[in-house]
Amino acid sequence: MFLNAIRLILLAVLVFTCGGCGDGDQTVIRENAEPNAIVTGRVIDSSTLLPVGGAVVTLLCNGTKLTVTTSNSSDPDLAGTFTFFGIVPTASYTGYELTISAPGYAVTYSAVQVQATSDNMPVSVPLGNITLGKPCDVTVIVSDHGIPVQGIVVSASNQYGYGSAITAVTDANGSAVLTGLNQEAFYHIVTAPKYDASGNILYSASSSSSYQPQNSARTISIAVTKAMSGGAIQIIGSNLTGNITTSTTNSLSQTYIKSDSIIRIVFNYPVVLTGSVSATYLNDLVPLSDPDYGKVVTVTTLTGSLDQSGTILTIANSSPYIKNQTYTFIIPVVTTLNGQTRSYNFSTSSPFFVNPVYVTDDSLTGLGPATILKADNFNGTSGATATSTPAQVYVEFPEKVFGTYRVISTKDGTVVTPFSNNTMTIGSFDGTIAYAANSGGADGVVVFKLPIDYFIYLPDNRTGAPSEVTIAFDVMDADGNRFNKTVTLPVQ
Asked: Which residues of the chain form CATH 2.60.40.10?
């Protein structure tokens, strides 16, 4: 019977044209489009699927609202139905918004598209069954690092952009209750910015979070941070250096200092020291026979002081830092931002990585154009004890270097093996600083061991059986000293 009724309505529209939505209230105008469309539907309960009579259905036409009420008829074909007459078809990229409300149900929103026909013949838009879900209340707790924030506007808007947002304002406990959310809908829940009486922003708006009541707790929390606080301590300047540039590469190294360096760090907020500044290092640049070999040593000769503004920290060491050693600094600083105590993680925080800190060798024994490099397979033998057993080849530098190298060839007795022209980069994590004797090397000195790529394995250089590697280097140390030449190195 419902379909028969629609057919009768369509026939009636052929002989009767409504002048607009709601007897002249219609404001939607489309060229060559007659106000002859019909929008129909049925409203049902989402859980029982039974018709809902007496529901108020509103169709929004560019600001003009058309309202009808669903049928309370005892006829099962008519119960819960609604019809809008004389609707103007819309362009393909626009549409109408349908709102349905009824006692005991959450307000439901949806979009309606009314397509025009090429000949302006009447068009029917059957929306079918539209379900109404039950409402619920959701409590939102707003806090700043655990402290409730009062006076924050909280809103829940339909995830698809339909309808007006449901809003509430937090009380002294930071609590706001959003009333009438549809348990079956999806929402974006956000906080609005908060200003003081002078118009200065106190809290920025929070980003949206997706929320569906039927799959979530009815109490949720939103963390906000005071505006203009930055939210954390940051280092905005330092005399620590981390970029090493050669003619062929720009490699990011560890942060480095000289053995007599005085460190200065600039913070974005005034800070206070909550303890002593110290540093640790792994004591591996000593012979294996040293009783402290392999132990973590704490540096107790450091002093840290803040300037009058509390933003510049100066760290001095009454003893020189150990050259070629890597230090990890412990700097216990905090600041108070908007009543909250914030600390700084020197190991991972950006924009500057303070740890680890490498101590350069800026003495005459460091890298230079005349530096003599050595190749060693660190098998514990050389000279009279040289063996024919191949092992991984390393090149020894007097200190850590950055840059590039290219293996040209190797020689094992009478066999010469040429290599491709691939250039390899020496970065901050390549190679190791070690006491040579700890790895079976021939020299009991501190060296920078760089494993040569391609997994080159060669035996010791022996009388009558040369073992050599030819490599082109273009490297620099942390002080900017450059070594740019091709060398042929016998393997120790």
From this structure: 2-132, 135-223
CATH number of the domain at 2-132, please?
A: 2.60.40.10
Confirm if 403 and 475 have CB atoms less than 8 A apart. Answer: yes
∠ Cα 412 417 419 (to 5°): 135
> What digits encode the pLDDT tens for the residues 160-180?
777 788 999 999 999 999 999
Quote the CA–CA distance of 321 and 257 in Å, as a whole number.
Answer: 9
Contacts of 472 (CB under 8 A, 6+ apart): 405, 406, 408, 485, 486
51 φ, ψ (degrees, to nearest 5): -65, 150
* SS3 at position 458: strand
Least Cα distance to 357 among 229, 268, 255 occurs for 255
Q: Which two tokens stand for residue 152?
A: 């924050």
Q: Specify the pLDDT at position 252.
A: 43
Q: Is the pTM of this model over 0.85?
A: no
Say yes or no to pLDDT of 219 above 90. Answer: yes
Give per-residue pLDDT as tens, 292-312: 999 999 999 999 999 999 999
Burial class of 318 by CB neighbour count within 10 A (0 to 12, 13 to 18, 19+): exposed
What single DSSP character describes residue 463? T
Give, rounded to a whole angstrom, the gap between the first and last alpha carbons of the chain.
101
Distance CA(234)–CA(342), nearest Å, equals 11
Query: Could you tell me how many residues make up the chain?
Result: 492
Can you tell me the distance from the alpha carbon of 350 to that of 348, in angstroms, rounded to the nearest whole number?
Answer: 7
Q: Which residue type is seen at 216?
A: S
Helices (H), 144-261: none
pLDDT in tens, 379-434: 888 888 999 999 999 999 988 888 899 999 999 999 999 987 788 988 877 889 99
Structure tokens at 267: 């913070």
Q: Is the dihedral of CA 77, 83, 89, 95 positive or negative?
A: negative
Reply yes or no on whether the pLDDT at 245 is more than 80.
no
Region of poorest pLDDT, from 109-123, 179-193, 323-337, 431-445: 109-123
Name beta bridge partners: 446. 435
- Class of 135-223 in CATH: mainly beta
Report, in angstroms and rounded to the nearest whole number, the Rg of the chain calculated over CA atoms.
39
* Residue 203, Ramachandran bin (φ over 0: left; ψ between -120 and 50: alpha; else beta): beta
**Is the CB of residue 322 less than 8 Å from the CB of residue 359?**
yes
Q: Using CB atoms within 10 A of its CB, is residue 466 exposed (0-12), middle (13-18) or buried (19+)?
A: middle
Check: CB of residue 255 under 8 Å from CB of residue 261: no
Q: Does domain 235-359 have CATH number 2.60.40?
A: yes
